[in-house]
Amino acid sequence: MSSLAACLTRRPALIPPPVTPEAQLEQLAAGTVKILSEKELLAKLRQGRPLRVKLGLDPTSPDIHLGHTVVFEKLRQFQALGHQAVLIIGDFTATIGDPSGRSATRPPLSREEVLAHAETYTTQAFKILDRDRTEVRFNGDWFRRMSFEDVLRLNARVTMQQMLQREDFKSRIEKGQEVRLHEIQYPIVQGWDSVEVRADVELGGTDQLFNLLVGRDLQKEEGQEQQVVITMPLLEGLDGVRKMSKSYDNYVGVDEEPNEMFGKLMSISDELMAKYYTLLLGEVLDDSAHPMDAKKSLAGRITERYHGPEAAGTARATWEARFSRKDVAAGAAELPLSGLPDDATVLSVAAHAFESAFGLSKSNGELRKQFITSGAVQLNGEKLTDPNAPLAPAAGDVLKLSKKHAVRFV
Question: Distance between CA 24 and CA 106 in Å, rounded?
């Protein structure tokens, strides 16, 4: 763990301002879905000590996206108020697989895979969190010391009826889908993490509520003060409908290159922008701001957070050159002339460009109707509306395919 901590990216340490417990509660409640309970949290804040605020991470993949960072932002807010973050790396629980929100059993991961993922997870997490106010723990440190007798005692704390109240388990059973016994262990082991680290508060997504409440129950049985449970909303992706997910291809990755990150954020709807301000920046969107200016500010600040001010400035300038000033060539992908089809027509070249430069497969009917006859396809600014017209571009020519896709021939 010491070698891992040494390589983590640091942000400047936070100096907590003098804020009353009541004012802290108001700040911390912003953007949350549920707090169990606000009365308990206020009582803890009035104790005048740094609270231990737990967030568990199962590194089941190597990278995180902005949807994952919603809880990090809330944890950072606790840190800014002088509290102690406790980051649990689930090197043990990730090998089980969290069943929350799942319609099928997660595929198992080896511990080597989990630890490799943990390196990138934590490096990316500390682009948001203050390392000096973060305690990093691996839950394998206590679970791998347990005997089978210890496991049986822990299982005796929870009833099967409790486990079967979980919506994802109930739904799978009703549909005749299997629920493996090891999945039932997951809420128990996540809850025991709270006992081990003596958490005052635990953060999680709305799909984690059941697991977080198990932690409260186990703490009570152990004679500990019960943790306050805070759930955060799931962030909608770029489509504005479904939660942000790589499987839906509506995500913004934390490690995506600056131009891609800035451009993706500029594509969100004005309606979604207020939620992004609240959940990703911890601020309320100024209603008096022009939507375009507000969106550029949002995209720029998030890009700066992960790539620095210079890269964010360049990304903004590139986007403005390409879209605000209609300079398509500013962000055009390069496409070799040597790879063009022998029967080079507007239709065949457009299909080749979409496939080769962007990995997008377009049918001839789609190309004709949505791109060519509509006037979207242009060579050096001249519309090409005849799909069958021969096309012989030269090096340096720019072919615009859509508002977001253009190629420069080389």
Answer: 38
- The residues, ordered by sequence, that sit 6+ positions from 185 with a Cβ below 8 Å of its Cβ are 96, 155
Which range has the worst mean pLDDT, 29-38, 79-88, 400-409? 400-409
Sequence-ordered list of residues with C-beta below 8 angstroms from that of 66, at least 6 positions apart, any chain = 235, 244, 251, 252, 253, 254, 280, 302
| Tokens describing residue 61 | 């993949």
Distances (CA, A) of 307 to 19, 70, 124: 31, 18, 11
- The answer to whether the CB of 214 falls within 8 A of the CB of 241 is no
The tokens 């417990």 sit on which residue? 21
Per-residue pLDDT band for 252 (boundaries 50, 70, 90) equals very high
Quick one: pLDDT band at residue 7, thresholds 50, 70, 90?
very low
Q: Give the span between the Cα atoms of 358 and 348, in whole angstroms.
A: 15
90-94, 159-163, 230-234: range with highest mean pLDDT: 230-234
This prediction's pTM: 0.66
Residue 18 scores a pLDDT above 80? no
Task: Print the SS3 string covering the chain.
Answer: CHHHHHCCCCCCCCCCCCCCHHHHHHHHHCCCCEEECHHHHHHHHCCCCCCEEEEEECCCCCCCECCCHHHHHHHHHHHHCCCEEEEEECCCHHHCCCCCCCCCCCCCCCHHHHHHHHHHHHHHHCCCCCHHHEEEEECHHHHCCCCHHHHHHHHCCCCHHHHCCCHHHHHHHHCCCCCCHHHHHHHHHHHHHHHHHCCCEEEEEHHHHHHHHHHHHHHHHCCCCCCEEEEECCCECCCCCCECCCCCCCCCECCCCHHHHHHHHHCCCHHHHHHHHHHHHCCCCCCCCCHHHHHHHHHHHHHHHHHCHHHHHHHHHHHHHHHHCCCHHHHCEEECHHHCCCCCEHHHHHHHHHHHHHCCCCCHHHHHHHHHCCCCCEECCEECCCCCCECCCCCCCEEECCCCCEEEEC
